[in-house]
């Protein structure tokens, strides 16, 4: 029972970080109907930037978020503006999948060229310290990462709910055509929305680098988990993504504790297939999207 | 959908395959045969992918899973002995059949979703297969990989059997592709691609044709995977279930033209040599990934519909313009009776 509770705590903390990555991805889908296959590699880009700042300038990984977030925001805006905006044919859905996959390959290639294929991670002095609460181990980094993710999710929520820009985003998600008729600048919303989506990858990347060892090929693992989470939560639903991320975090960490770590990823996919069997549109997906 | 077998079409296919058969017989050097084996394999893979991704409009990103299953089947069955060398080839159709049947439930679940979600679900299929390949160590050897016993072919013509098997696989894939275009299956798939709900509404057996396309496609890909495994000899999870193979199939089909007979083949014959060239030019560094991604992006941005559809559209437009000019000339000409005859000729 103790081990199980410990696994659940670990799962919730890990799930929080995934929730942040996935919320960015599902936001991008909500606005543009683009499945961003580069989200995983952008998380890695954030992690590598943090790594560079940490090893060369000694900057604290949590502090480096202030640097990496604007950079990845600009990367996101650039990708949307240069590569996705020109795709205005009838099958944007398929083409954008492939374009973002190409972006993922390209960034993976650049990262491998610059950093090599060896596994690295970011190890600040407090990386291995942990608190003991009621007999359960809570790693400081994991807890802080979870906290930071919650804060960022809160910021995201406030941007979407309380700002004029957020209102135009929500309008675009609900009905792009009417939003444009009401004077929403769709291209601007798409570009900034994509930027915000990738900016969440920067924050998540900084903490991901402390929690995991990674190399440029790790983005396949990341993107497979993220896709599972966003499909499970229902594409375009941020709340759904958060619930799915925490659920998946707990499920995989419990499987790792009870059975074996090698099957923990597997549990992701099995849950996904089961959910799709019963509910093809995901847990909180809109009725019209991508489902029978 | 113009699937009629014309004399020109037969001639084109005949010449193409005659050329493919002639190349090794005329004594092409080993490196050319080696590149061609991979090119023809990708042409067959892309043609098979086209059955689902092109005709049905369901962009599967998980087809390499079936490729990997085919590869491991050969690897597991023939790890100690290849029984004279040709038995693995004879087993390929059985593997294709088995994987085709295995893919049906997978297709049934994943094809309940549409375009983008379908792509995601099939991507997870890829990762499931890769995870299994890494972790079922007793069967696949895990990260250490597994190997096929060396084929006892002579050094001079070692590549020949693999080459001709790939040609046969390509012929089968193209034959099925052509059959799809001519038959009711192809017509049904076209309606699925255009508007699945309406197709369902007017009584097209949507699920059945989707599953036929998926199963046939998966079986063909598995056969190519088996032949590949026998040729390269060593099977590692990261190469047998490599996302780049999936992306290769997709990209080649997109480059040549989706839902066309020759598009995937054309795409493969352009992209595989390019890929080999990049791998040679940039060596072990990962820059070839960057170059590959750049080619990929250029194709998507400038030729999103593929080479063949773009060309035929341009030809059609020229023909239309010609017809309009002709009509215009005829409309003007009655006032000048002398020129009318000349125009009509």
Structure notes:
- The complex is a heterodimer of chains A (292) and B (345).
- Chain A is globular.
- In chain A, strands 1-2 form a two-stranded antiparallel ribbon.
- Chain A contains eleven helices and two strands; from the N terminus they run ααααββααααααα.
- The model of chain A is unreliable at 287-292 (pLDDT under 50).
- Chain A has one domain: ABC transporter involved in vitamin B12 uptake, BtuC (Orthogonal Bundle), CATH 1.10.3470.
- With 292 residues, chain A is mainly α.
- Chain A has helices at 2-32, 39-57, 61-84, 92-115, 140-162, 164-174, 176-181, 186-211, 219-233, 238-258, 264-278, and strands at residues 130-133, 136-139.
- In chain A, α2 crosses α9 and α9 (219-233) runs parallel beside α11.
- A two-stranded antiparallel ribbon of chain B has the order 1-2.
- Chain B has 16 helices and two strands.
- With 345 residues, chain B is mostly helical.
- In chain B, α3 (64-77) packs antiparallel against α4.
- Chain B has one domain (7-330): ABC transporter involved in vitamin B12 uptake, BtuC.
- At the A-B interface, α4, α9 and α11 of A face α5, α12 and α14 of B.
Strand content of chain A: under 5%
CATH topology of chain B: ABC transporter involved in vitamin B12 uptake, BtuC
Largest interface, Cβ cutoff 8 Å: A-B, 50 and 45 residues
Radius of gyration of chain A: 19 Å
What name does CATH use for the topology of chain A?
ABC transporter involved in vitamin B12 uptake, BtuC
CATH class type of chain A: Mainly Alpha
